[in-house]
Amino acid sequence: MEATEAHLDRIDQVDGKLNSYITVTRDEALQAAREAERAVASGNHLGPLHGVPFAVKDQFWTRGILTTGGSRILADFVPDEDATVISRLKGAGAILLGKLNMSEFATGNSVYHHWGTPRNPWDLERNPGTSSSGSGAATAAFLCATSIGEDTGGSVRNPANNCGLVGLRPTHGLVSRYGMLGASWSNDIGGPISRTAEDCAVTLQAIAGYDPKDSYSANRPVPDYRAILEGDLKGLKVGIVKEGLYADFVQPEIRETVSNAISHLGELGASIDEVSIPLMPYTAAINRIHIEVEAAPMHRRWLETRPQDYDHNVRTDFLTGSVLPAQLYYKAQRLRELIRRQVFQVLERVDVLALPNSSEPAPLINTKPGIFSKEEAKARMSGRRSLTGSFNLASVPALAVHCGFVTSTGRDMPTALQLAGRPFSDGLLLKVAHLYQQSTSWHTRKPPI
Questions:
Q1: Domains contained in the chain, number
Q2: Domain that holds residue 64
Q3: Mind telling me the catalytic residues?
Protein backbone atom coordinates (compact mmCIF):
# COMPACT_ATOMS: atom_id res chain seq x y z
CA MET A 1 0.00 0.00 0.00
CA GLU A 2 2.79 2.41 0.94
CA ALA A 3 4.55 1.91 -2.41
CA THR A 4 1.41 2.79 -4.34
CA GLU A 5 0.71 5.85 -2.22
CA ALA A 6 4.32 7.02 -2.57
CA HIS A 7 4.21 6.74 -6.35
CA LEU A 8 0.88 8.56 -6.55
CA ASP A 9 2.30 11.35 -4.37
CA ARG A 10 5.34 11.52 -6.63
CA ILE A 11 3.09 11.80 -9.69
CA ASP A 12 1.25 14.71 -8.05
CA GLN A 13 4.52 16.47 -7.27
CA VAL A 14 6.42 15.95 -10.52
CA ASP A 15 4.23 15.05 -13.48
CA GLY A 16 3.06 18.60 -14.04
CA LYS A 17 6.57 19.19 -15.39
CA LEU A 18 6.85 15.97 -17.40
CA ASN A 19 3.37 15.29 -18.85
CA SER A 20 4.20 11.58 -18.72
CA TYR A 21 0.66 10.47 -17.80
CA ILE A 22 -2.55 10.91 -19.75
CA THR A 23 -4.72 9.23 -17.11
CA VAL A 24 -3.88 8.52 -13.46
CA THR A 25 -6.07 5.77 -12.00
CA ARG A 26 -5.71 6.84 -8.37
CA ASP A 27 -8.85 5.28 -6.92
CA GLU A 28 -8.44 2.01 -8.79
CA ALA A 29 -4.76 1.81 -7.81
CA LEU A 30 -5.44 2.37 -4.12
CA GLN A 31 -8.21 -0.25 -4.14
CA ALA A 32 -5.96 -2.76 -5.91
CA ALA A 33 -3.16 -2.02 -3.44
CA ARG A 34 -5.46 -2.71 -0.49
CA GLU A 35 -6.51 -6.00 -2.06
CA ALA A 36 -2.87 -6.92 -2.72
CA GLU A 37 -2.00 -6.15 0.89
CA ARG A 38 -4.83 -8.37 2.16
CA ALA A 39 -3.76 -11.18 -0.18
CA VAL A 40 -0.19 -11.13 1.14
CA ALA A 41 -1.43 -11.04 4.73
CA SER A 42 -3.49 -14.17 4.06
CA GLY A 43 -0.52 -16.00 2.57
CA ASN A 44 -1.50 -15.60 -1.08
CA HIS A 45 1.70 -14.04 -2.45
CA LEU A 46 1.67 -13.95 -6.24
CA GLY A 47 5.37 -13.35 -6.89
CA PRO A 48 7.89 -10.52 -7.31
CA LEU A 49 5.41 -8.12 -8.94
CA HIS A 50 2.77 -8.49 -6.21
CA GLY A 51 1.95 -4.95 -5.05
CA VAL A 52 4.42 -3.32 -7.47
CA PRO A 53 3.05 -0.15 -9.11
CA PHE A 54 3.33 -0.08 -12.91
CA ALA A 55 2.09 2.13 -15.72
CA VAL A 56 1.39 1.39 -19.37
CA LYS A 57 1.59 3.26 -22.64
CA ASP A 58 -1.89 4.44 -23.60
CA GLN A 59 -1.80 2.07 -26.56
CA PHE A 60 -3.12 -0.89 -24.57
CA TRP A 61 -6.76 -1.47 -23.75
CA THR A 62 -7.72 -1.10 -20.10
CA ARG A 63 -11.19 -2.15 -19.02
CA GLY A 64 -13.25 0.83 -17.93
CA ILE A 65 -10.31 3.22 -18.36
CA LEU A 66 -9.72 5.74 -21.14
CA THR A 67 -7.44 4.40 -23.89
CA THR A 68 -6.53 7.11 -26.39
CA GLY A 69 -3.53 6.00 -28.44
CA GLY A 70 -2.29 9.54 -27.79
CA SER A 71 -4.93 10.92 -30.17
CA ARG A 72 -7.96 13.17 -29.81
CA ILE A 73 -9.70 10.80 -32.23
CA LEU A 74 -9.94 8.26 -29.40
CA ALA A 75 -10.48 10.85 -26.68
CA ASP A 76 -13.67 9.07 -25.55
CA PHE A 77 -12.66 5.43 -26.10
CA VAL A 78 -13.12 3.26 -23.01
CA PRO A 79 -12.57 -0.47 -23.70
CA ASP A 80 -14.72 -3.11 -22.04
CA GLU A 81 -11.79 -5.49 -21.52
CA ASP A 82 -8.09 -5.45 -20.74
CA ALA A 83 -5.32 -6.15 -23.22
CA THR A 84 -3.67 -9.49 -22.47
CA VAL A 85 -0.53 -7.69 -21.27
CA ILE A 86 -2.61 -5.77 -18.72
CA SER A 87 -4.57 -8.79 -17.50
CA ARG A 88 -1.33 -10.75 -17.02
CA LEU A 89 0.31 -7.97 -15.02
CA LYS A 90 -2.76 -7.65 -12.84
CA GLY A 91 -2.79 -11.45 -12.47
CA ALA A 92 0.78 -11.22 -11.18
CA GLY A 93 -0.41 -8.78 -8.51
CA ALA A 94 0.96 -5.58 -10.09
CA ILE A 95 -0.90 -2.31 -9.45
CA LEU A 96 -1.89 -0.15 -12.43
CA LEU A 97 -1.16 3.52 -11.71
CA GLY A 98 -2.37 4.84 -15.05
CA LYS A 99 -1.93 5.33 -18.79
CA LEU A 100 1.19 6.95 -20.21
CA ASN A 101 1.61 9.65 -22.83
CA MET A 102 2.80 8.76 -26.31
CA SER A 103 3.27 9.95 -29.87
CA GLU A 104 -0.08 9.89 -31.65
CA PHE A 105 -0.91 6.33 -32.73
CA ALA A 106 2.71 5.34 -32.00
CA THR A 107 4.07 6.95 -35.17
CA GLY A 108 7.00 8.64 -33.44
CA ASN A 109 6.68 11.76 -35.60
CA SER A 110 3.92 13.76 -33.93
CA VAL A 111 4.65 17.29 -32.74
CA TYR A 112 1.34 18.13 -31.09
CA HIS A 113 0.32 16.14 -28.00
CA HIS A 114 -3.31 16.48 -26.97
CA TRP A 115 -2.50 15.84 -23.29
CA GLY A 116 0.67 17.92 -23.13
CA THR A 117 4.15 17.46 -24.56
CA PRO A 118 6.11 14.72 -22.76
CA ARG A 119 9.47 15.94 -21.42
CA ASN A 120 12.74 14.30 -20.49
CA PRO A 121 13.48 14.29 -16.72
CA TRP A 122 17.21 14.79 -17.43
CA ASP A 123 16.48 18.00 -19.37
CA LEU A 124 12.93 19.30 -19.68
CA GLU A 125 13.67 20.89 -23.06
CA ARG A 126 14.58 17.51 -24.58
CA ASN A 127 12.64 14.60 -25.99
CA PRO A 128 12.21 11.58 -23.69
CA GLY A 129 12.12 9.32 -26.75
CA THR A 130 9.35 8.27 -29.10
CA SER A 131 6.87 6.84 -29.31
CA SER A 132 6.69 5.42 -25.75
CA SER A 133 7.56 8.87 -24.42
CA GLY A 134 5.63 8.73 -21.16
CA SER A 135 6.93 5.25 -20.40
CA GLY A 136 10.50 6.51 -20.48
CA ALA A 137 9.88 9.75 -18.61
CA ALA A 138 7.72 8.22 -15.86
CA THR A 139 10.06 5.29 -15.20
CA ALA A 140 13.19 7.45 -15.10
CA ALA A 141 11.53 9.98 -12.77
CA PHE A 142 10.26 7.27 -10.37
CA LEU A 143 6.60 7.87 -11.23
CA CYS A 144 6.18 4.09 -11.57
CA ALA A 145 8.30 1.09 -10.64
CA THR A 146 8.26 -0.38 -14.15
CA SER A 147 6.35 0.32 -17.34
CA ILE A 148 5.19 -1.11 -20.63
CA GLY A 149 5.92 0.47 -23.99
CA GLU A 150 5.51 -0.71 -27.57
CA ASP A 151 8.24 -0.99 -30.19
CA THR A 152 7.61 -0.66 -33.94
CA GLY A 153 10.93 0.81 -35.02
CA GLY A 154 12.66 1.47 -31.70
CA SER A 155 9.88 2.91 -29.55
CA VAL A 156 10.83 0.96 -26.42
CA ARG A 157 14.58 1.26 -26.89
CA ASN A 158 14.68 4.97 -27.76
CA PRO A 159 12.99 6.12 -24.51
CA ALA A 160 15.35 3.78 -22.63
CA ASN A 161 18.27 5.42 -24.46
CA ASN A 162 17.10 8.99 -23.87
CA CYS A 163 16.09 8.51 -20.24
CA GLY A 164 18.85 6.22 -18.91
CA LEU A 165 16.90 2.96 -18.60
CA VAL A 166 16.69 -0.62 -19.85
CA GLY A 167 14.16 -1.29 -22.60
CA LEU A 168 13.52 -4.61 -24.32
CA ARG A 169 11.85 -5.16 -27.66
CA PRO A 170 10.95 -8.87 -27.25
CA THR A 171 11.12 -11.52 -29.94
CA HIS A 172 8.16 -11.25 -32.30
CA GLY A 173 5.47 -13.53 -30.89
CA LEU A 174 6.78 -13.70 -27.32
CA VAL A 175 4.29 -11.13 -25.98
CA SER A 176 0.62 -11.08 -26.94
CA ARG A 177 -0.62 -8.11 -28.94
CA TYR A 178 -4.29 -8.69 -28.17
CA GLY A 179 -5.85 -5.42 -27.08
CA MET A 180 -2.95 -3.30 -28.32
CA LEU A 181 -3.74 -0.47 -30.74
CA GLY A 182 -1.74 -1.24 -33.86
CA ALA A 183 0.84 0.90 -35.62
CA SER A 184 2.33 -1.65 -38.03
CA TRP A 185 1.06 -5.23 -37.73
CA SER A 186 4.32 -6.80 -38.95
CA ASN A 187 6.55 -4.81 -36.58
CA ASP A 188 4.59 -4.01 -33.40
CA ILE A 189 5.28 -5.66 -30.07
CA GLY A 190 4.91 -4.54 -26.46
CA GLY A 191 7.86 -4.67 -24.11
CA PRO A 192 9.11 -3.58 -20.67
CA ILE A 193 10.93 -0.35 -19.83
CA SER A 194 12.56 -0.47 -16.40
CA ARG A 195 15.41 1.01 -14.42
CA THR A 196 17.32 -2.28 -14.23
CA ALA A 197 17.64 -5.41 -16.32
CA GLU A 198 16.37 -7.44 -13.37
CA ASP A 199 13.18 -5.36 -13.19
CA CYS A 200 12.86 -5.80 -16.96
CA ALA A 201 13.18 -9.57 -16.58
CA VAL A 202 10.53 -9.74 -13.87
CA THR A 203 8.16 -7.62 -15.96
CA LEU A 204 8.77 -9.73 -19.06
CA GLN A 205 8.10 -12.89 -17.04
CA ALA A 206 4.60 -11.67 -16.31
CA ILE A 207 3.64 -10.65 -19.85
CA ALA A 208 5.34 -13.33 -21.99
CA GLY A 209 3.71 -16.47 -23.29
CA TYR A 210 1.19 -17.90 -25.70
CA ASP A 211 -2.20 -16.25 -25.99
CA PRO A 212 -4.98 -17.96 -27.98
CA LYS A 213 -6.45 -14.50 -28.61
CA ASP A 214 -3.36 -13.58 -30.64
CA SER A 215 -2.75 -15.89 -33.59
CA TYR A 216 0.80 -14.53 -33.94
CA SER A 217 1.86 -15.42 -30.40
CA ALA A 218 4.36 -18.28 -30.07
CA ASN A 219 3.17 -21.47 -28.40
CA ARG A 220 6.33 -22.37 -26.50
CA PRO A 221 7.39 -22.55 -22.83
CA VAL A 222 8.45 -19.32 -21.14
CA PRO A 223 11.77 -19.66 -19.31
CA ASP A 224 12.56 -18.27 -15.86
CA TYR A 225 14.07 -14.97 -16.97
CA ARG A 226 15.22 -13.98 -13.50
CA ALA A 227 17.15 -17.25 -13.10
CA ILE A 228 18.86 -16.72 -16.48
CA LEU A 229 20.45 -13.53 -15.14
CA GLU A 230 22.87 -15.50 -12.96
CA GLY A 231 26.31 -16.66 -14.09
CA ASP A 232 29.00 -14.89 -16.11
CA LEU A 233 29.89 -13.94 -19.66
CA LYS A 234 32.71 -16.41 -20.19
CA GLY A 235 32.43 -17.97 -23.63
CA LEU A 236 29.90 -15.40 -24.86
CA LYS A 237 30.62 -14.17 -28.39
CA VAL A 238 29.78 -10.51 -28.98
CA GLY A 239 29.77 -9.06 -32.49
CA ILE A 240 30.29 -5.33 -32.98
CA VAL A 241 28.12 -4.28 -35.92
CA LYS A 242 30.48 -2.15 -38.02
CA GLU A 243 27.67 -0.36 -39.86
CA GLY A 244 26.34 0.73 -36.46
CA LEU A 245 29.34 1.69 -34.33
CA TYR A 246 31.43 3.20 -37.11
CA ALA A 247 28.67 4.89 -39.11
CA ASP A 248 29.58 8.46 -40.01
CA PHE A 249 26.30 9.75 -38.57
CA VAL A 250 27.13 8.44 -35.05
CA GLN A 251 28.46 11.30 -32.93
CA PRO A 252 32.04 10.72 -31.71
CA GLU A 253 31.09 10.96 -28.03
CA ILE A 254 28.37 8.34 -28.52
CA ARG A 255 30.82 6.07 -30.35
CA GLU A 256 33.38 6.40 -27.55
CA THR A 257 30.86 5.73 -24.78
CA VAL A 258 29.40 2.67 -26.50
CA SER A 259 32.89 1.38 -27.39
CA ASN A 260 33.84 1.58 -23.72
CA ALA A 261 30.72 -0.39 -22.79
CA ILE A 262 31.54 -3.11 -25.33
CA SER A 263 35.12 -3.28 -24.05
CA HIS A 264 33.72 -3.74 -20.55
CA LEU A 265 31.82 -6.80 -21.76
CA GLY A 266 35.21 -8.15 -22.85
CA GLU A 267 36.57 -7.51 -19.37
CA LEU A 268 33.68 -9.56 -18.00
CA GLY A 269 34.74 -12.55 -20.10
CA ALA A 270 33.06 -12.13 -23.48
CA SER A 271 35.03 -12.42 -26.71
CA ILE A 272 34.64 -9.45 -29.05
CA ASP A 273 34.72 -9.52 -32.84
CA GLU A 274 33.48 -7.31 -35.67
CA VAL A 275 30.61 -8.32 -37.94
CA SER A 276 28.83 -6.70 -40.85
CA ILE A 277 25.16 -6.13 -41.72
CA PRO A 278 25.61 -4.34 -45.09
CA LEU A 279 21.95 -3.34 -45.49
CA MET A 280 21.67 -1.74 -42.05
CA PRO A 281 22.06 1.86 -43.34
CA TYR A 282 18.93 1.42 -45.47
CA THR A 283 16.64 -0.13 -42.89
CA ALA A 284 15.11 3.12 -41.62
CA ALA A 285 13.57 3.79 -45.04
CA ILE A 286 12.47 0.17 -45.48
CA ASN A 287 10.90 0.10 -42.03
CA ARG A 288 9.15 3.40 -42.64
CA ILE A 289 7.51 2.04 -45.80
CA HIS A 290 6.13 -0.90 -43.81
CA ILE A 291 4.85 1.36 -41.04
CA GLU A 292 3.11 3.90 -43.26
CA VAL A 293 1.56 1.39 -45.66
CA GLU A 294 0.34 -0.91 -42.87
CA ALA A 295 -1.05 1.95 -40.78
CA ALA A 296 -2.96 3.64 -43.58
CA PRO A 297 -5.83 1.10 -43.89
CA MET A 298 -6.50 1.27 -40.15
CA HIS A 299 -7.05 5.01 -40.42
CA ARG A 300 -8.85 5.30 -43.75
CA ARG A 301 -12.28 6.10 -42.28
CA TRP A 302 -10.91 8.74 -39.90
CA LEU A 303 -8.70 10.24 -42.60
CA GLU A 304 -11.86 10.74 -44.67
CA THR A 305 -14.06 12.06 -41.88
CA ARG A 306 -11.73 13.61 -39.26
CA PRO A 307 -8.46 14.60 -40.98
CA GLN A 308 -8.21 17.80 -38.96
CA ASP A 309 -8.03 15.83 -35.70
CA TYR A 310 -4.66 14.29 -36.54
CA ASP A 311 -1.33 15.92 -35.79
CA HIS A 312 0.03 17.38 -39.03
CA ASN A 313 2.97 14.98 -39.27
CA VAL A 314 0.85 11.94 -38.42
CA ARG A 315 -1.76 12.85 -41.02
CA THR A 316 1.01 13.28 -43.59
CA ASP A 317 2.46 9.85 -42.72
CA PHE A 318 -0.87 8.07 -43.07
CA LEU A 319 -1.82 9.87 -46.29
CA THR A 320 1.58 8.97 -47.71
CA GLY A 321 0.99 5.35 -46.80
CA SER A 322 -2.35 5.51 -48.60
CA VAL A 323 -0.77 6.43 -51.94
CA LEU A 324 2.50 4.51 -51.93
CA PRO A 325 2.39 2.00 -54.80
CA ALA A 326 2.03 -1.72 -54.15
CA GLN A 327 5.27 -2.32 -56.05
CA LEU A 328 7.18 -0.28 -53.45
CA TYR A 329 5.68 -2.20 -50.54
CA TYR A 330 6.47 -5.47 -52.30
CA LYS A 331 10.07 -4.37 -52.86
CA ALA A 332 10.34 -3.35 -49.21
CA GLN A 333 9.17 -6.82 -48.18
CA ARG A 334 11.83 -8.46 -50.35
CA LEU A 335 14.49 -6.17 -48.90
CA ARG A 336 13.23 -7.01 -45.43
CA GLU A 337 13.92 -10.69 -46.09
CA LEU A 338 17.46 -9.83 -47.20
CA ILE A 339 18.04 -7.83 -44.01
CA ARG A 340 16.64 -10.64 -41.89
CA ARG A 341 18.96 -13.09 -43.68
CA GLN A 342 21.99 -10.88 -43.01
CA VAL A 343 21.11 -10.57 -39.32
CA PHE A 344 20.65 -14.33 -39.00
CA GLN A 345 23.91 -15.01 -40.81
CA VAL A 346 25.98 -12.95 -38.36
CA LEU A 347 24.11 -14.52 -35.43
CA GLU A 348 25.42 -17.89 -36.58
CA ARG A 349 28.92 -16.60 -35.75
CA VAL A 350 28.19 -14.68 -32.56
CA ASP A 351 25.69 -14.87 -29.70
CA VAL A 352 24.94 -11.18 -29.28
CA LEU A 353 25.22 -8.12 -31.53
CA ALA A 354 26.40 -4.82 -30.03
CA LEU A 355 26.09 -1.28 -31.39
CA PRO A 356 24.81 2.16 -30.35
CA ASN A 357 21.09 2.50 -29.78
CA SER A 358 21.14 6.05 -31.11
CA SER A 359 23.56 8.23 -33.01
CA GLU A 360 22.94 11.24 -30.77
CA PRO A 361 21.72 12.17 -27.29
CA ALA A 362 18.09 13.09 -26.74
CA PRO A 363 17.26 15.91 -29.18
CA LEU A 364 15.47 19.12 -28.29
CA ILE A 365 11.69 18.83 -28.40
CA ASN A 366 10.43 19.56 -31.91
CA THR A 367 7.85 22.35 -32.04
CA LYS A 368 7.54 22.80 -35.81
CA PRO A 369 5.32 20.43 -37.79
CA GLY A 370 6.30 19.51 -41.33
CA ILE A 371 9.52 18.88 -43.23
CA PHE A 372 11.42 21.92 -44.49
CA SER A 373 14.34 20.53 -46.49
CA LYS A 374 15.60 17.52 -48.39
CA GLU A 375 18.21 17.04 -45.68
CA GLU A 376 15.53 16.79 -43.01
CA ALA A 377 13.53 14.33 -45.13
CA LYS A 378 16.63 12.22 -45.65
CA ALA A 379 17.38 12.26 -41.91
CA ARG A 380 13.94 10.81 -41.18
CA MET A 381 14.63 7.94 -43.54
CA SER A 382 18.18 7.16 -42.40
CA GLY A 383 20.60 7.65 -39.55
CA ARG A 384 19.68 6.64 -36.02
CA ARG A 385 16.42 4.95 -37.05
CA SER A 386 18.44 2.35 -38.96
CA LEU A 387 20.25 1.36 -35.77
CA THR A 388 17.04 0.13 -34.17
CA GLY A 389 14.78 -0.60 -37.16
CA SER A 390 17.03 -3.38 -38.44
CA PHE A 391 15.97 -5.67 -35.62
CA ASN A 392 12.26 -4.92 -36.01
CA LEU A 393 12.56 -5.97 -39.64
CA ALA A 394 14.42 -9.13 -38.60
CA SER A 395 11.82 -9.86 -35.85
CA VAL A 396 14.57 -10.59 -33.31
CA PRO A 397 14.89 -9.35 -29.72
CA ALA A 398 16.81 -6.14 -29.07
CA LEU A 399 17.59 -4.30 -25.86
CA ALA A 400 18.90 -0.88 -24.86
CA VAL A 401 20.88 -0.54 -21.63
CA HIS A 402 22.10 2.76 -20.20
CA CYS A 403 25.91 2.84 -20.57
CA GLY A 404 26.99 6.37 -19.75
CA PHE A 405 26.48 10.06 -20.38
CA VAL A 406 27.44 12.49 -23.11
CA THR A 407 28.06 16.19 -22.46
CA SER A 408 27.80 17.72 -25.93
CA THR A 409 24.38 19.19 -25.07
CA GLY A 410 25.80 21.24 -22.20
CA ARG A 411 24.64 18.85 -19.51
CA ASP A 412 24.91 15.12 -18.86
CA MET A 413 22.48 13.19 -21.04
CA PRO A 414 22.17 9.37 -21.04
CA THR A 415 23.02 7.12 -23.94
CA ALA A 416 22.67 3.36 -24.39
CA LEU A 417 24.38 0.27 -25.68
CA GLN A 418 22.06 -1.75 -27.90
CA LEU A 419 22.18 -5.55 -27.84
CA ALA A 420 20.38 -7.91 -30.23
CA GLY A 421 20.22 -11.68 -30.47
CA ARG A 422 18.63 -14.74 -32.01
CA PRO A 423 14.88 -15.29 -31.76
CA PHE A 424 13.84 -16.08 -28.18
CA SER A 425 17.26 -15.19 -26.75
CA ASP A 426 15.57 -12.42 -24.77
CA GLY A 427 16.85 -13.91 -21.53
CA LEU A 428 20.44 -13.84 -22.76
CA LEU A 429 20.19 -10.15 -23.65
CA LEU A 430 18.80 -9.43 -20.19
CA LYS A 431 21.64 -11.43 -18.64
CA VAL A 432 24.30 -9.43 -20.51
CA ALA A 433 22.61 -6.17 -19.50
CA HIS A 434 22.26 -7.33 -15.88
CA LEU A 435 25.91 -8.34 -15.52
CA TYR A 436 26.93 -5.06 -17.14
CA GLN A 437 24.83 -3.15 -14.63
CA GLN A 438 26.12 -5.21 -11.71
CA SER A 439 29.67 -4.13 -12.54
CA THR A 440 28.97 -0.47 -13.40
CA SER A 441 27.10 2.34 -11.68
CA TRP A 442 25.47 4.29 -14.51
CA HIS A 443 22.00 2.99 -13.61
CA THR A 444 22.28 4.32 -10.05
CA ARG A 445 22.31 7.96 -11.12
CA LYS A 446 18.98 9.77 -10.92
CA PRO A 447 17.68 12.59 -13.09
CA PRO A 448 17.73 16.05 -11.47
CA ILE A 449 13.98 16.58 -11.50
A1: 1
A2: 2-444
A3: 57, 131, 155
Asked if 27 contacts 33 with a C-beta cutoff of 8 angstroms, the reply is no
Looking at residue 265, its pLDDT comes to 98
CA distance 440 to 403: 8
Beta bridge partners of 421: 352
Question: Cβ contacts of residue 92 below 8 Å, gap of 6+?
Answer: 46, 47, 49, 50, 205, 206
- Percent of the chain as helix, strand, coil, to the nearest 5: 45, 15, 40
Q: What is the pLDDT of residue 371?
A: 76
Split at pLDDT 50, 70, 90, the class of 374 is: confident
We report the CATH number of the domain holding residue 65 as 3.90.1300.10
Nearest to 118 by CA among 155, 63, 85: 155
Per-residue pLDDT tens over the stretch 102-160: 999 999 889 999 999 999 999 999 999 999 999 999 999 999 999 999 999 999 999 99
Is 449 part of a structural domain of the chain? Answer: no
Stated pTM of the model: 0.97
Q: Is residue 367 part of a domain?
A: yes
The distance of Cα 15 from the centroid of its chain, to the nearest Å, equals: 20
Within a domain: 193: yes
Is position 92 within any domain?
Answer: yes
Q: How far apart are CA 397 and CA 305, in angstroms?
A: 38
